[in-house]
Design brief:
The chain has 92 residues and is mostly helical. It has 3 helices and no strands. It has a domain of 55 residues. This is Envelope stress response membrane protein PspB.
């Protein structure tokens, strides 16, 4: 007699609670914490500033040396050449 309520309670209360508990844990583990989002934002800002500095250095070197051709590839998939750098400067 006592086995039937235990089995029914396990099936209809215990098992769904166990499944929903683990689903909730998986969802919270898959999201970024506030610290992770802040660190990602800082890294993005740092990468943007470094890229701007590198662009400035490349423009200065290209202005001083006409034969210099950078090996870096820009966002559009083009190599930085003196013509591309001057075109980028005009577009700014």
């Amino acid at each position: 007699m006592i086995i039937v309520p235990i089995v029914m309670g396990t099936l209809f209360i215990g098992l769904p609670w166990l499944i929903l508990h683990h689903v909730t844990k998986w969802k919270t583990a898959a999201t970024l914490s506030n610290d992770d989002e802040r660190m990602l934002s800082e890294m993005h800002d740092l990468a943007r500033r470094l890229e701007e500095r590198l662009d400035t250095v490349e423009r200065l070197v290209a202005a001083d040396n006409a034969d210099w051709e950078p090996r870096r590839i820009d966002h559009e998939g083009e190599n930085y050449t003196a013509e591309n750098i001057s075109r980028l400067e005009r577009n700014r």
